[in-house]
Write a structure and sequence with these properties.
about 325 residues; 6-stranded mixed sheet; globular
């Protein structure tokens, strides 16, 4: 009898221990989920160069599959900076795909945030980076006072050229002119600083952004001419950030044989990989892929780049 009682007590203690362990695991899981919900993050809303993917008028190998399968199509490069505590978010770049990208953000976040971002950060006046502003005008959404953060030349361009000037006059957007010496506070969770980068500045200067949350720093330079023209070495900038979204317009000089590539200078991915030390390769996330770039559609090339430690930006993924 005493032996059976001891066995029963032992089983009872084991059962109690298992229950307590299960409760502890569940508690830790819930705490982890709650923490994740309150941690600011970046979501990629587009990865393609200004013309999107597939590209207008392209029936070559690079775009054939994407014309047939919508799952392979990609929007023009754009990011969302998300603050789950204040339930606000900011859009980086207003692309020609802005309508679909706002919808994508709502889908991915299950409608927990306002439809419109609290503000928009623009890098420069090339078609893939600002022309989505037209969707905020009276012919479409007719928004009210959406803050648009721009460097001075970009501000003047929007103020003095139609149809963008009408957006300003009708208060669809409110321009916030910034400079490269400013650290701009968006919320308690997000702040950013702009820098100028060398690019084809026909209408405005070109900005890159250092985007900062409490525990991480992100770099965003989707467009530049060549890294060796930068004021600060790209290797140093990558070291100073936890993750860098860098210009990957072209993989190599071979892919644009039908056009003078000197008219659209960009650092080749092959060049960038040679410049970035292997020890910090995992801090680089390539983005802004031209439709000719095999990193959009060639698994073998993608695998080769990933094997060297580099990342490839993925649409709808949070970082």
């Amino acid at each position: 009898m005493q032996k059976r009682n001891k066995q029963g007590l032992s089983r009872s203690l084991e059962r109690d221990f298992c229950i307590r362990l299960l409760i502890l695991c569940c508690t830790l899981f819930v705490q982890e989920k709650l923490f994740a919900q309150h941690s600011p993050f970046i979501m990629v809303l587009g990865t393609a160069q200004d013309g999107g993917y597939p590209h207008i008028g392209c029936n070559r190998t690079c775009c054939t599959a994407a014309w047939k399968q919508t799952t392979q199509q990609r929007y023009v490069v754009s990011l969302a900076l998300v603050d789950p505590i204040e339930k606000q978010w900011w859009l980086v770049e207003a692309t020609p795909d802005i309508k679909a990208q706002l919808h994508l953000f709502q889908e991915q976040t299950k409608g927990k945030y306002p439809f419109l971002p609290k503000g928009i950060l623009l890098t420069h006046a090339h078609m893939g980076h600002y022309t989505g502003l037209m969707q905020l005008g009276r012919e479409a959404l007719s928004s009210k006072g959406v803050e648009v953060y721009v460097l001075p030349k970009m501000a003047k361009f929007l103020e003095n050229n139609g149809p963008w000037s009408q957006l300003v006059q009708l208060n669809n957007i409110t321009l916030v002119s910034i400079d490269t010496n400013q650290l701009i506070k968006l919320s308690d969770q997000w702040q950013f600083r702009a820098m100028t980068v060398p690019h084809r500045d026909e209408f405005s200067e070109t900005a890159g952004f250092s985007m900062i949350k409490k525990d991480k720093r992100y770099l965003f330079i989707p467009d530049t001419d060549k890294w060796d023209k930068m004021t600060k070495p790209i290797q140093d900038l990558v070291k100073q950030h936890d993750l860098s979204f860098l210009d990957a317009t072209f993989y190599s000089a071979d892919e644009l044989s039908y056009r003078n590539i000197q008219e659209v200078p960009h650092p080749f991915v092959t060049e960038t990989m040679q410049m970035i030390p292997a020890a910090i390769a995992s801090k680089v996330c390539f983005i802004h892929f031209n439709h000719t770039n095999p990193l959009l559609w060639d698994k073998t090339v993608k695998d080769q780049v990933r094997k060297q430690g580099f990342l490839l930006a993925e649409q709808a993924k949070a970082y």
